[in-house]
Amino acid sequence: MDRDAHGAPELIARFPSLARIGRVSFGAFPTPVERVTLARVRGPLWVKRDDLNARGLSDAVSSCAAGNKLRALEYLLAGVMTGDTVLALGGEGSTHVLATIVLAQRLGARVRAIRWPHEMNETARRVERRAREMADEVQGAPGPVRAVASGWLAALRMPAAAATRWIPPGGASPLGMLGAVNAGLELAAQVARGEAPVPAHVVLPLGTGGTAGGLALGFAIAGLGTQVVGVRVVPRVMANAWRVRRLAHRCARLIERTTGTRIPRPTPRSIRVVHRFYGGAYGRALGAAQEVRREFERATGVLLDETYGAKAFAAAVELSQTTDEPTLYWLTFDARSVSEPSVQPMRQP
Fold first, then answer.
1. 245, 227 contact by CB (below 8 A)
2. How many domains does the chain have?
3. Contact status, residue 136 vs residue 110, Cβ threshold 8 Å
4. Euclidean distance between CA atoms 286 and 276, whole angstroms
5. Which of 253, 207, 211, 198 is nearest to 231 (CA)?
6. What is the value of pTM for the model shown?
7. Among 164, 167, 196, which residue's Cα sits nearest to residue 32?
8. Per-residue H/E/C for 119-169
9. Is the Cβ–Cβ distance between 61 and 31 less than 8 Å?
10. First-residue to last-residue Cα distance in the chain
């Protein structure tokens, strides 16, 4: 996690009593903020490189875990030990499930992945293949409701002596969101150090909502007037402003119960959801995002995935064409781990 001059993570520096909550250190923080130069944008466009946060992990598989899910899993996998069983739920092609498999197995746990089908693009198919290759056990379900029911049933059937850890879809729980709250404070600290301007908007993919809600809460705590713009990549019933605000308030209550300190909440204006880049299905590539995906790769050497990254970046580019204020795109997934061998998607900073 990011650390201040005294060596404490930003979140713990503000709320020392949160150190009582368990956390396992996987990532390398803070992740860089970089300026992106594109000819057709009007306002300054920046990128937060969370695709680089697995630099602290040594093996080649570690890039499968990089991104926003690593931040949540530092809290959600705390206390997992060798021989434990971790239940990971998600749709086929879920980067959260892949990251859970990688990081839980680093702790010596077995991982049972419970998956449901939906439309896929090539990047999502590669994510799914990698997850199936690595999981200790894979179970299918017709949809998310049945997957959750299967997960609870599997946990109940485990022997009494076996330790089982249930990981919520997308890691979207108050506990997992502490990683995103710290991410918001991390960016605020980088702004204070002059590494980037205060962004008027932070744009990121919106799935289960934990990262968006956690960032909004972190910005509120830091006193930044930044608006979080979630670009919906899943059905509206899962990704909507009401759900993101509710998650942020639940996480705030966890912090308040632990610290005994009242903290600010995100305002309605601080969270906005953009729906029109969805494409009609979770894994359906969006034609309008393909050109900006290639443009981003030419400018930065970074390959965006088609499920999350390209759609959110297309929205960030469109927004930056309408304002002179700084826009920051939060890169939430490292696509190197699922790219073709011939592709060289990253240029390390």
1. no
2. 2
3. yes
4. 10
5. 207
6. 0.92
7. 196
8. CCCHHHHHHHHHHHHHCCEEEECCCHHHHHHHHHHHHHHCCCCCCEEEECH
9. no
10. 19
